Amino acid sequence: EALPAIRLSNEQAICIKHGQSLNLSLVDDLSGSSERLQGTVRMYNDAVFLGLGEMLRDGKLAPKKLFNMSNGPVSATAQCIA
């Protein structure tokens, strides 16, 4: 069974790339549904694979294994919600 995939906004991707957790209780998976996910997930920003994350019971998404697949968004002005 494939790992669930979630799509992150540019701001969320910046935070994840900097190793910060996000507070997400509901996320949009790539199938278009919003659901409460738990466990390991694949993270994407647009069509770019960012890496693997861990959806925790408290609704936080923590980066687990990140890949530098492209330059992507790197703005220093992102407001991360850790």
What does this structure look like?
There is one protein chain. The protein is mainly β. The protein has one helix and seven strands; from the N terminus they run βαββββββ. Helices cover 10% and strands 38% of the residues. It has a single domain (5-66), classed as Archaeosine Trna-guanine Transglycosylase, Chain: A, domain 4 (Roll). The strands form two sheets. The protein has a five-stranded mixed sheet with strand order 1-5-6-7-2, with helices on one face. A two-stranded antiparallel sheet has the order 3-4.
Main features:
82 residues, mainly beta, Archaeosine Trna-guanine Transglycosylase, Chain: A, domain 4, 5-stranded mixed beta sheet
Distance between the termini: 30 Å
Low-confidence stretches: none
Shape: globular
Helix count, per DSSP? Answer: 1
Going by CATH, the homologous superfamily would be PUA domain
- What name does CATH use for the topology? Archaeosine Trna-guanine Transglycosylase, Chain: A, domain 4
Q: If you average the pLDDT, what whole number results?
A: 80
Whole-number total of structural domains? 1
The CATH C-level name is Mainly Beta
Beta-strand fraction estimate: 35-45%
Strand order of the largest sheet: 1-5-6-7-2
- The helix content, as a percent range, equals under 10%
